[in-house]
Structures are given as C-alpha cells and as structure tokens.
Amino acid sequence: MVAQRLDQAPWRATRWLVLAPHPDDETLGTGALIAQTAAGSRLAGVVYLTDGSGSHPHTDGGVRKLVGVRLREAGLSLFYLTGCRRYAPVCLGWRDARPETPQSMEFQKSVSQMAALCRRRRVDAIAVTAHHEPHCDHAAAAHLAYAVARCAKRPIRVAEYCVWAPHLPVKAFTPLRTRSMPIGKRRRALRAHRSQLTLSYGPGFRLPADEQRMAARDILFVRTGR
Predict the structure, then answer these.
(1) Is a pLDDT exceeding 60 seen at residue 60?
(2) Strands in 34-156 per DSSP E
(3) Which residues on adjacent β-strands are paired with residue 119?
(4) What is the number of other CB atoms lying within 10 angstroms of the CB of residue 14?
C-alpha cells in the first residue's frame, strides 16, 4: 500500500500532538513530523510519558537532578526541530520503566490530563510509539493514547510510530509519511540528548550507534477502519 502524505488531504490540516515515552524518542520516532507540523503551525505540542530517570544509576538525591537534565535536553531538542521556543515539553511524570496499568488511578489521571490538553489545543491526531514495541513504556504510551482518544470528547486519530520495533503490517494499518527533513537538523536534535549519547552523566544507557542513523522522513501507522 502506498503511504498517504501528511501534506495532502485528508491530513494536511491536522493538528498533531506527539506522545513520547522518554526524552529522545520524539527525535528518533517523530523528528520529521515535529519539524513539518511546527513549520505549518500544526504542532499542538510534545508530551513525555515518563521522567526518564531509569537511564542511569543514581544515589539518593540524584533522581531529581537527572530528571531535570533530561527535561532540559528535551527542550533543546524541540528547539532544534522546530526553530522556536514556543513548544515547551510537557511531562506526565511516570516513573521510567514502571508503567501504570489501565486500572490504576495514575493512568486514569493521565488520561484526564491529556484529554483536557487535547480539547484545549484542538488536537486532531496523536502520534505515539507502536503498541508492539518491546519496551514496556513504549507499549504503555500506546495504551494511553488510545484511551485518551476514546474520552477526549472530540474526534482524535491515533498514529503509531516505531522506535525499536519493525514497521507494522499494512494489512491492518494505513501508513502515513512525512516530508523529508534535513538529516543534519535531526542529528543536531538528537545530540541535544547528551546524557543518552555520551559519558556526560556518567555510567548508564547509551543509544546504540546503529539507532542513531535516522531516516530523513517518518512513517506512521493508523489502524484501518479508525
């Protein structure tokens, strides 16, 4: 199936909200989407599910510092992708690698918070990590996005993007594609996440080199019939 273009009908007027599990997933999975929609004044915002605190071991008191570092990195990355400071990152504050279940009060609180945000910012579509991603936070983000779409009191489409997993089957999903973006711009945005790429914050997670080779455009997937 040929992918639908986001700059053509029925998607060209869509206002997008990006839901990323951790700071850096926004650049890896939707860097081109963010750049394209911001340029067309169609980016409603970027929301981070977790605080990103699981990427490094830390002593008592170190969690807050790491969370602050990762949020500042996210803001700088969004600045490089959008070219402006108007898109301040929103963080739901879930603990990294400890996703809430749909039955929990925290999950329902996040649904209500995001649904209100979608109404306030007139969101038409949510881009979120794919439901089959191997990381628990990535899968949880997908569950949250669909829950938000069901109770936002406005029509919202959910489009899944892949970070660690292979692309979704086109028999069950309609693929969408963004315009290409300058790959150097995307790399610069990724380099803003220094804690995930270098030893700047000490021992911890390092994004593998092959995962840093990003494409110039994004592919997203919308469930057929939704």
Answers:
(1) no
(2) 43-50, 90-94, 125-129
(3) none
(4) 17
**Predicted pLDDT at 166:** 92
Q: How are strands ordered across the β-sheet holding 90-94?
A: 4-5, 173-177, 219-223, 157-161, 125-129, 16-20, 43-50, 90-94
- CA 29, CA 163: separation in Å to the nearest integer? 5
For residue 134, which amino acid is it? P
* Encoded tokens for 216: 């110039």
Per the CB < 8 A criterion, the answer to whether 158 and 125 are in contact is: yes
Kindly report, residue by residue over 96-136, the tens digit of the pLDDT.
999 999 999 999 999 999 999 999 999 999 999 999 999 99
The Cα–Cα gap between 62 and 57 comes to: 9
In whole angstroms, give the CA distance from residue 186 to residue 51: 22
Q: Is the pLDDT of residue 10 over 60?
A: yes
Q: Which helix (H) or strand (E) holds 222?
A: strand 219-223
Instruction: Report the distance separating Cα 42 and Cα 124, nearest Å.
Output: 10
Looking at 16-153, which runs of residues are DSSP E strands? 16-20, 43-50, 90-94, 125-129
> Alpha-carbon distance 179 to 33, whole Å?
8
Question: Distance between CA atoms of 218 and 152, rounded to whole angstroms?
Answer: 26
* Residue 166 preceded by cis peptide, ω within 30: no
